[in-house]
Amino acid sequence: MSCGEPHETDCSEVLDHLYEFLDSEMPDVDRDKFQHHFEECSPCLEKYGLEQAVKKLVKRCCGHDDVPADLRAKVMGRIDLIRSGQTVPQHDVAKAPAAPQES
């Protein structure tokens, strides 16, 4: 996605780190770069608005559920593995129980 205009921060970088921006999990200097990008790139701003709306909807619908304390750390660790090109160990992946088969 791109508006076709050159930007100081590339659209792909902005979209790759959109949730870090939404969750305020990036340094202020990067947040400022992203904010500037959104001001000049309407396709990225539109994507930002859509993802922000989805995030608010999920929070409203699911925000009251208690989450195990170590879940976030496990999820972030898996994301880091995937981003670095490593494979996620199969023994670590929670498997859903098999659905009962009808006779």
UniProtKB/TrEMBL annotation:
Residues 11-44 form the Putative zinc-finger domain. InterPro entries: Anit_sigma_mycothiol_RsrA (IPR024020), Znf_put (IPR027383). Pfam families: zf-HC2. This is Anti-sigma factor.
